[in-house]
Amino acid sequence: MQNKFKLRDRTNKFTFMFKSYSGVHLGFLCVNFYMKCLGIYPLPSTVSKFWTRVYNLLWCFYLSNHLLIIFPTFYAFGSTTQDIAVATFSLMEGLCMIECIVLLIHFKYQRSDFKILLSLVHHELNKKKRIITLDNGNVYIIAFVLIAIMYVLIIFNYIQRPETVRYHKLLTTARYPFSTRAATIKIILSCHQIVVLLHMTIILTSDGLAVLLTLICTVRLKNLETKISNEKRGKLPKRIREHQQILLQVEETNLIVRIIVIKTVFCFMVFSISTGLQIFHKFEIIQIFIVMIVFLRFYVSAESADNMATCANNLGIAVYSTAWYEEKTKIRIAKTIIIQRCQKSPRIFITGFMSELNRKYFLVVAYATYSYFTMIRTLISKNK
């Protein structure tokens, strides 16, 4: 009977680890595919010059499309003085376009660091010992499923939006300094706007990438804690070097992820303000869904960053909890080095703006948003 229970326990553990690996690996493959389609994938050095130029042209094509439409969109926002619904839609579209432009430039500028991080992720996922376990793995899955559902609902409601917020029946609210009633011009502009709207999936792709990069750092820290607890003391110097490599990977990850996160926080605040100004408008459903999507994107990023910091602290506690009096002097020194490094937790931050991305920072922003909506509702109810 005991052997049966042991076998069942091992089988359940293997199944959980396999599912965790499959989920992370599938997410990495999906993010890779979308990055290649959206023009932000760092091509390896083995790719020929011809295909490198073609891919650079694809990047320029996406960037030029966003630049060509962003000015008419903000012109529509500035020229709308009566209907707040039109102004809100224009602001929403314009901010999404700015997000896309920032991401295109950011990934182009950081392509060398980005290439190194992707190679580390690929190496970690293809190790023979695929020990990838996530304590709150279901949280990320549920969050991304909700984001996908609300994204579909936004598209449906956006297509069904009232005619008052359309301009000559085009897809966006952009207003051009020339007539768009001709059939040829309308077809060209519609194709142009379709490209822009489809490329906006780069926003969700970058959020998925940020979470994936942070999770890989978390997994490496967790696996290192297991190795230090179970392996022989003679391998401790090797684990010190591995710990240093993980800390360097966290620093490289911060260079990529911090821009993505701070962009999400900024858009969350602006979308919340615009939704609050339109809080009792009959067409507010799209704005509410957008705020909820950005809210979930922000939450997943904060959750993954907080888990990474927690794993780093747990590593220091695990080393400190070992039997020091039985160790040699060299081993004590090695453990002291690890503990000292763990005193400064690896984090996602921007100096002067965001001290550390974690659950506490997320709750502060969420509470401020809730207070804002409460204040707006109170003011409107008093004026009725």
Give a short summary of the structure.
By secondary structure, the protein is mainly α. The chain has 11 helices and no strands.
3D architecture notes:
This protein has 384 residues and is mostly helical. The chain has one domain (14-383). Helix content is 77%, strand content 0%. It is built from eleven helices and no strands. It has helices at residues 2-38, 49-79, 84-109, 111-125, 137-159, 183-199, 201-230, 236-277, 285-320, 329-343, 359-383. The model is unreliable at 1-20 (pLDDT under 50).
This entry's quaternary arrangement is: single chain
Number of strands: 0
* Strand composition percent: under 5%
Distance between the termini: 72 Å
Residues in helices, as a percent range: over 70%
Q: Which structural class is indicated by helix and strand composition?
A: mainly alpha
Spans of at least 5 consecutive residues whose pLDDT stays below 50 are: 1-20
Number of domains: 1
Write down the Rg.
Answer: 25 Å
Number of helices: 11
Shape: globular
Mean pLDDT: 80
Order of helices and strands: HHHHHHHHHHH
List the helices and strands and how they pair.
Layout: H1 2-38, H2 49-79, H3 84-109, H4 111-125, H5 137-159, H6 183-199, H7 201-230, H8 236-277, H9 285-320, H10 329-343, H11 359-383
InterPro entries: 7tm6_olfct_rcpt
GO molecular function, one term: olfactory receptor activity
Protein name: Odorant receptor
